[in-house]
Amino acid sequence: MHMKMEKFSMGIGDRFGHQGRAQLTAFITAARSGVHVVPVWNKSNREHLIVHSEPSAVRAEADDAVRSLGWKGTYHVDADHIGIKTVDRFLPVSDFFTIDVADFIGKPTDEPGLDDLIRQLAKVGPRPEIPSVSRPFELAPEKIVAIAAKYLSAVKEAGRVYRYIEKSRGRGNFITEVSMDETDRPQTPEDLLVILAALACEGVPVQTIAPKFTGRFNKGVDYQGDPAVFEREFMDDIAVVAFAVRHFGLPGDLKLSVHSGSDKFSIYAPINRTVKRMNCGLHLKTAGTTWLEEIAALAAVGGEGTTFAREVYAGALDHYDELCAPYASVIDIDKSRLPSAKKVQSLPGDAFAAMIRHDANNPAYNPWVRQLLHVGYKLAANAGPRYSSLLKTYAEPIGRAVTENILNRHLLKIFG
């Protein structure tokens, strides 16, 4: 037995820990309209280090929101993008673990496993007939060997981390996600099939798998790529997941996970219709959206809120390289399109807020400003009590913006 993963779930990061109730309000409102999605509070070790927080604070925030608002449904707390070196601090408080093995892709492994993998895939033959895929699959032995050379080390690491978590938490007492999305090249559907077969061989009861899809999933802005190409790939991957469950003995609730999925508005309709067509589950993980709603709302309120937002932007320009370097693979900023700090200083607060808010129909919207501020949350963290005081002072407009964003731009569009 394992902790069941419900059909639809969404990860909701909250870097500063003030928006738990506003976030959960969106899920409650969605449920009243018939859209039932499980909230998963997620925060990575990197984010904890930057904002000087502890994983226990995420658990406390989630529990407080659930208790205060009377949520009766399932919810989880995700140890986001952890590995063997970072998992310990999450073990007492998390019940969802995103095991990130992207750094092990392409690395050689001395551990046995290739023969077991070939035997596992021999069950389905060199041309597996997978319903609903867009093209025939070819898995000749030499192709399996080539794919295994790239991914077997990552799968072995996932197994090592999974068993470490299991020893502490106990078998069946947590959700297991395996993430391979933060890498340079997307996985093909054939890659995904081999990866899932290898995870089955490794004994990892994976319940959600996060591959890297075609196109760019930059933080906080829309999908960069051809939505039609994404839709075909997404359909193929869902078909592969269903096939792997039937043939490799993986958990029946296994589903795809879309990372950095916030604000990918152009692929929400393809995701929605594909999930409905295939009658399958989905986990979508948002990335930094709540922080952006906070800073946009502060920009709009005037007074000290607007002053602070302008200061953060000016600081982000001054520390551009330092802030952007850790996120280089998931942002794409045209520096020539960033207004000067002096220009932003002269703008009314609501005009600056319009630059930040993701509304492509508003000519003031600036995706480069939005991405820079996305990675600029370290500056708010460094402000310490000043920033937390502003979050309390302007809790009502900030909370309203957070709820609106999650409910109308995300939950209803993706899962409705």
3D architecture notes:
The chain folds into two domains: 8-287, TIM Barrel, CATH 3.20.20; 290-383, no CATH class. β1, α1 and β2 form a beta-alpha-beta unit. Strands 1-2-3-4-5-6-7-8 form an eight-stranded parallel beta barrel, surrounded by five helices. The relative contact order is 0.14. The protein has helices at residues 20-32, 45-51, 55-69, 114-122, 141-169, 189-202, 227-248, 268-278, 289-301, 303-318, 320-324, 341-346, 349-356, 367-375, 377-383, 385-393, 395-415; strands spanning 8-11, 38-44, 76-82, 96-100, 175-179, 208-210, 255-258, 282-285. Helices cover 51% and strands 9% of the residues. The radius of gyration is 21 Å and the shape is globular. The two termini are 30 Å apart. The chain has 416 residues and is of the alpha/beta class. The chain has 17 helices and eight strands.
Task: Outline the secondary-structure elements.
Blueprint: E1 8-11, H1 20-32, E2 38-44, H2 45-51, H3 55-69, E3 76-82, E4 96-100, H4 114-122, H5 141-169, E5 175-179, H6 189-202, E6 208-210, H7 227-248, E7 255-258, H8 268-278, E8 282-285, H9 289-301, H10 303-318, H11 320-324, H12 341-346, H13 349-356, H14 367-375, H15 377-383, H16 385-393, H17 395-415
Parallel strand pairs: 1-2, 1-8, 2-3, 3-4, 4-5, 5-6, 6-7, 7-8
Helix pairs in contact: 1-3, 1-17, 4-6, 5-6, 6-7, 7-8, 8-17, 9-10, 9-13, 9-17, 10-14
